[in-house]
Design goal:
By secondary structure, the protein is mostly helical. It has eight helices and no strands. It is about 75% helix and about 0% strand. The chain starts with 6 loop residues before the first helix and ends with a helix.
């Protein structure tokens, strides 16, 4: 499958194909359930990707979803995840403070867009648990596999021979990730999630393509956000 293409063109075809599946599925599911069209499209895309990788005799571990072998890898998992969380929270906070200082009202007003999608979470245990399930399956697990593991690995082949291809790969994936969040988070979502995705992309290389710390960092931060909405914390 696609063996007739050079590695560069094959990688481009794979990226275009699976991004099209991801966004195309979302468009199709939108009229049925706007709230969950993103998670549904992500899970469906991962299923198709899993079939494709199997046909290519490629393992998930080659994308970064590999067992933690040895005590050192296990001991480093939590500290590495904490570094990821610190960056996610830190960059988000700095961007919001900068927007407030500069008077970027459009950027700040976008903060309430997501709430419409998530529903009335305050005190609603059932809805809260449902979104935590979405967080750890579609968001933390699914998005890290797709946008960091698969997307960056293919982007590296696409930019093969280009100076600093690892930075370009992380940036390319980050811009696509930011766009994926624009539909319900607006400009603020695009900028913040794009920068966060670039940070996670850099950590993907720093952690030698180990996705587990990124999955934990992504899941913990999103869980904290939904917990804040559920508990009605002023953040």
């Amino acid at each position: 499958m696609l063996e007739f293409l050079t590695p560069r063109w094959r990688s481009l075809a794979e990226l275009i194909g699976f991004v099209t599946i991801l966004f195309g599925t979302k468009v199709l599911v939108d009229p049925l359930t706007w709230q969950f069209s993103g998670p549904v499209s992500m899970i469906f895309t991962l299923i198709v990707l899993g079939i494709y990788l199997r046909l290519q005799n490629e393992q998930w571990s080659e994308l970064g979803l590999r067992p933690l072998s040895g005590w050192k890898a296990k001991l480093l998992l939590l500290p590495q995840a904490i570094v990821g969380m610190a960056g996610i929270i830190g960059f988000s906070a700095m961007l919001l403070l900068l927007a407030q200082h500069m008077g970027w009202t459009e950027f700040l007003e976008a903060s309430g867009v997501g709430a419409e999608r998530w529903g009335d979470l305050k005190g609603n245990l059932g809805l809260y648990l449902l979104w935590l399930l979405v967080v750890w399956t579609s968001a933390a697990f699914g998005e890290e596999i797709f946008f960091r593991g698969f997307f960056i690995s293919r982007a590296q082949r696409l930019f093969d021979g280009v100076p600093h291809k690892w930075i370009l790969s992380a940036l390319f994936a980050a811009l696509t990730f930011g766009y994926a969040h624009y539909y319900y988070q607006g400009v603020r979502g695009f900028v913040i999630t794009g920068i966060v995705a670039f940070w996670l992309g850099l950590l993907y290389f720093a952690y030698k393509r180990n996705l587990w710390p990124l999955i934990l960092a992504h899941g913990f931060v999103d869980s904290l956000m939904f917990t804040a909405h559920f508990m009605d914390w002023d953040i």
